[in-house]
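For the sake of transparency, this paper describes our internal protein records without simplification. The tokens are whole numbers drawn from a learned vocabulary of local backbone shapes. One such record is reproduced below, unchanged from the form in which we store it.

. . .
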Amino acid sequence: MDLIEILMIAVGLSMDAFAVSLAVAAAGRAASKRATFRLSFHFGLFQFLMPVVGWHVGVRVAPLVSSLDHWIVLVLLMVVGGRMIRAGVRTEATSFPQDPTRGWTLMMLAVATSIDALAVGLSLAMLSGRIWYPAVVIGVVTGTLVLIGVRMGNRFGTWLGKPMEVLGGIILIIVGLRILYTHLTGQP
């Protein structure tokens, strides 16, 4: 997997965290530098850790499903992308009864927005890919996009969050289709 594909996956995975950071900031909950740092750090950290966990699980499973790996990767990325698109087109508003930049609320948001990265780590293992470089890229991209999301949320409100989630889902589906194409045709 080349850098462009890793960046596309990283951006796609980051859209959930980006959308949440927009909503948190638009709700006036991330006005301080400390709150912004907590969001960016935790979301980036969990987006880094989850692919590593998924990869370690996948390494043990990959030899058992090696003839189907590209189909499994496609299904996983399509499910994750589809979930993101569905969440992006829902119309209900996001509200935060507690401070989402602290404690268990922050941890739950960080885990919830990074579960998809677990599936990507599993996919990387099935593709016999390395994990550390993609995981670092995914974590850094997420942390950076969360910083941008907070700034934009403080400035523009929540109207950008849902379209970004849809875009992230579309990107993941495209990456999955490209991986399938590469495996079926033997072309990069």
Q: What stands out?
A: The CA atoms of residues 93 and 131 lie 36 Å apart. The chain has a mean pLDDT of 81. The radius of gyration is 16 Å.
